[in-house]
Amino acid sequence: MARMKKIINLVLVIFIAASLASLAIACGEQGTVPAETQATEQQAEETTAPAETTATETAAQESGECPPSTSAKVESTNGAYVDRMPISWDSIGTQAAYLSHSTNQTAVFIYIANFETSENLKDVALSDGQAVIQFTLTVPGEGDPVPVSLGKYNVKEQVDNYASAGIRLTGGSTLSISTADIASADFEITSVTETEICGKFNIDEKWTKMSGEFKVPIVK
Fold it and tell me: Are the C-beta atoms of residues 107 and 99 closer than 8 Å to each other?
């Protein structure tokens, strides 16, 4: 009889141990993600993140960059400019840009005045202290119209995309930046849309230094 009790107790112990082992395995399956699944999910996350960043960067490049507003600084020892001092660029007034298309070439005329006017800045009469910065861009290419290119423009030579600069003054005078006397020059178009053109400039000529950035409406 005692032997029979021992056998029954042994069977009960084995049964309980087996039940506990099955329960542990079931819990482990519910609470643990297989290593292969974790690796796949992590790889998917790593692949998705760079793709989103690239899309954002591409959109930013396509839309271009514009400053909040136009600003300009001019210093000149040119007699034509000095004789008409003071001329202040602390405040920018009326601005306008005009596009002229012809076969295999587009010209852009940018005007930045230090005063307000409703007249055409190309030939508006100027009063004392008033002046107009003007840039003329030439964009060669194929077709009609040739799109205005983003990027650097040559100021020293009339090759490729190039820009000329000057300041219209009172009395019908224009201070033209001399390409032969330019120490350094940087002119860049950063954005062009149907309604505005943006860019920046830094020109150091023998007599005149001018720098700034612009956000100018395109007049149709």
Answer: yes
Question: Mind listing the pLDDT tens digit for each residue in 139-159?
Answer: 999 888 999 999 999 999 999
Give the C-alpha separation, 26 to 143, whole Å.
Answer: 73
pLDDT in tens, 72-116: 999 999 999 999 999 999 999 999 999 999 989 999 999 999 999
Report residue 187 as tokens. 């002119």
Coil, strand or helix at 208: strand
112 contacts 125 by C-beta, under 8 angstroms: no
Structure tokens at 154: 């040559």
Token pair, residue 198, equals 């943006």
3-state secondary structure of 126: coil
Q: Hey, where are the domains in the chain?
A: 2-60, 66-217
Query: What's the predicted TM-score (pTM) here?
Result: 0.71
**Quick check: 84 and 95 in contact, CB under 8 A?**
no
Q: Please provide residue 159's backbone torsions phi and psi, each rounded to the nearest 5 degrees.
A: -130, 150
**Residue 136 φ/ψ, nearest 5 degrees:** -120, 120
Partners of 7 in beta bridges:
none
160's CB contacts (< 8 A; 6+ apart) are 140, 154
Residue 125 in tokens? 């009469």
